[in-house]
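Good morning C.,

I know you're traveling, so I'll keep this short. The sequence:
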Amino acid sequence: GLHLARSKNPDLILLDVMLPGMDGFTVCKTLREEGNNIPIIMLTAREEENDKVFGLELGADDYIGKPFGHRELVSRIKAVLRRAEAPAPLARNRVQVDERLVVDFDRRLAEVEGEPVHLRPTEYRLLHHFMNHPGRLLSHENLLSRVWGSEYRDDTQLLRLYVNYLRKKLEPDPSRPRYIINERGLGYRFMDYSPE
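The tokens, ready to paste straight into the viewer:
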């Protein structure tokens, strides 16, 4: 499977967690560590929240518990493939947010105090959506629909997880965010900035 993913570059990988020899978590982690950004949907009979979070933290784009219907699977595949397409670029490809944060959309990375910070595809799409609306309150539903697809508009746990990833990578103190502000029960607001 790893060899095929590397050599054939598929549009999407359906990856079962329970595999002989090497489990799906290890396969996902290996692909992401190699810089492979092929969308991955993990399939498992274990639908515990910790397993789902672990799979997403390793870089999976979605996680489906068995049993599932074929229509749900097709819908999730379509949603992940839609999300895999890059969002429309900002007017400027390199944006100076403030003295410590620069985002380079051409290279899909941020620079924090001059040091490059790699963004995973979903983190990139979320940050891109935030930065297209500086200072504006974006509802949970808006963020989930725009970044993940309308099927996910109620999955606030997924949104919280990825906001936390971005905060850990970008904020000086993730426990007291400066860039991505939570408006309790309503959504999130990205710091108002004036791109030069």
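Safe travels,
E.
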